[in-house]
Design brief:
The complex is a heterodimer of chains A (245) and B (224). Chain A is α/β, with parallel strands linked by helices and 245 residues long. Chain A has nine helices and ten strands. In chain A, strand 1 and strand 2 form a beta hairpin. In chain A, helix 3 crosses helix 4. Chain A is globular and about 55 Å long. The termini of chain A are far apart. The interface between A and B is medium-sized, with 32 and 29 residues.
């Protein structure tokens, strides 16, 4: 069976900066992969390249055996199978919580309004926001907004979920509620790519840890192996910095 | 007072002409201006060039010259036989659309890029993310300047009087022919415009209030 996500020879430059260097990565169905690395290592860019939100200079991206085209209608259709959660939540500011979750199913998948609302309420209930459905995003806390963002992505029944530093913009006391929702998803068998600094989540929920530095994948191993016996100098250096304080 | 009361019919029919010119041109300029703004941010270079060229040309041309072209130049092309009223609506709409475009485009730049990214990540195409997500927020952000553009349009309708269109800007000529004081007449015309513009100001205020609860607060929270 084809891997759920397959990157082959992916390159990306920002001007002179080579942010992704010949990235090859395969992620199996149901696998939870945490991407770690120092800032500027290209981990966010890698995450955004998977649904081609970030244009790439070379290489191929496949989702569930289908290559993503560079642009156009086909890309939009394939993208709708890839859920994405952003650092800054990016909930639609002029839409209510319920509308945020029903918008894409009704406009992209042409699901009926009633059906989309039923499904949205189920998902909002699952992430613990059911009673806030008629509010606007600005009326919710950061942690609540991020949980709505997860529900919004799940409403499209994605094949894979991308998390681009989902807890980095949150106040510390709200990190837990978002990580809990993500852990539930991982347990339910969702294929996930998670760029994060939450080492607890990496240890508990990840099947694999991918460590990046300078635009390259330096290590690719199990969480146990990575945290106990990092094989590269850069990974040891990174872990030393984040785990000592 | 007699200047107004004796010529009430004249005032009435001419201000009605002003309102008709304004309403038609306002709708047309808002629609065309928004389309132009969409073209200016579109990924297609030809569209961006076309819209930019349009704005440069129309925004930098005096309105009177735009009128001259449509009143005297356009009929020579023998494309269609249009009344002066229709040509006035066309002139005002095309001219004002350039200003609407730039105002809406300014609004688009206030919408955080993450909004369009989230829309694209969900599978919405460029057109859908623009019309469903970006433009509604952009227009909410520019209600006050957009109102100013429309107020300017309402006052610009007086230029049409110079091209034989029956509207309020031409009242003074009639009054002077009938032997009334044109100065007093013009004061009444000025008052008439204040009365016409007041509803626009009230509309602006009510839209601002209605939208501040949702998008305004959220934009601030998003910027955090």
């Amino acid at each position: 069976m084809a891997p759920m996500v397959r990157l082959a020879g992916v390159n990306k430059h920002f001007g002179d900066l080579h942010v992704l260097r010949e990235i090859d990565l395969e992620i199996a169905r149901g696998e939870v992969v945490v991407v770690l690395g120092p800032s500027g290592s290209g981990k966010s860019t890698l995450c955004r390249a998977i649904n081609r939100l970030e244009p790439i200079d070379g290489g191929t991206v496949e989702i569930d055996g289908t290559e993503l085209p560079a642009e156009g209608r086909d890309l939009a259709a394939l993208r709708s199978d890839v859920g994405m959660v952003f650092q800054q939540f990016n909930l639609f500011a002029h839409k209510t919580i319920l509308e945020n979750v029903t918008l894409a199913p009704t406009k992209v998948r042409k699901v009926s309004k009633g059906e989309a609302e039923n499904r949205a309420r189920t998902l909002l209930d699952r992430v613990g926001i059911a009673d806030q459905a008629s509010k606007y995003p600005a009326q919710l806390s950061g942690g609540q907004q991020q949980r709505v963002a997860i529900a919004r992505a799940l409403a499209m029944d994605p094949k894979v979920m991308l998390f681009d530093e989902p807890t980095s913009a949150l106040d510390p006391e709200m990190v837990g509620e978002v990580v809990d929702v993500m852990s539930d998803l991982a347990r339910d068998g969702m294929t996930m790519v998670v760029v994060t600094h939450e080492m607890g989540f990496a240890r508990r929920a990840a099947h694999r840890v991918v460590f990046m530095a300078d635009g390259e994948i330096v290590e690719d191993s199990t969480p146990d192996a990575f945290f106990a016996r990092p094989s590269s100098e850069r990974a040891r250096d990174f872990l030393g910095k984040i785990l000592t304080h | 007072m007699n200047v107004l009361l004796d010529n009430l019919g004249e005032f009435g029919s001419r201000f009605l002409g002003t309102v008709e010119l304004f309403v038609l041109s306002a709708v047309a300029s808002l629609v065309l201006g928004t389309v132009l703004a969409a073209m200016r941010v579109s990924p297609v270079p030809a569209m961006r060039v076309a819209a930019t060229g349009y704005v440069t040309l129309l925004r930098n041309t005096p309105l009177t010259l735009v009128f001259f072209f449509f009143a005297f130049g356009f009929p020579l092309l023998e494309i269609a036989d249009l009344s002066f009223f229709t040509l006035a609506v066309v002139s005002l709409s095309l001219y004002t659309a350039a200003f609407v475009c730039e105002t809406v485009r300014a609004g688009i730049t206030t919408v955080p890029p993450g909004q369009a990214e989230a829309a694209r990540a969900l599978g919405l195409g460029f057109g859908q993310s623009l019309t469903l997500i970006v433009l509604p927020q952009a227009i909410r952000a520019v209600v006050p300047p957009l109102t100013s553009v429309q107020i300017a349009l309402l006052k610009n309708t007086t230029v049409a009087a110079g091209f034989s269109v029956v509207e309020a800007g031409g009242i003074y000529q009639v009054l002077s022919e009938r032997g009334y004081s044109t100065l007093v007449g013009l004061l009444w015309v000025a008052l008439g415009f204040v009365v016409l513009i007041t509803p626009l100001t009230l509309l602006q205020r009510s839209l601002e209030r209605r939208w501040s609860a949702s998008s305004g607060g959220a934009v601030k929270a998003g910027a955090r």
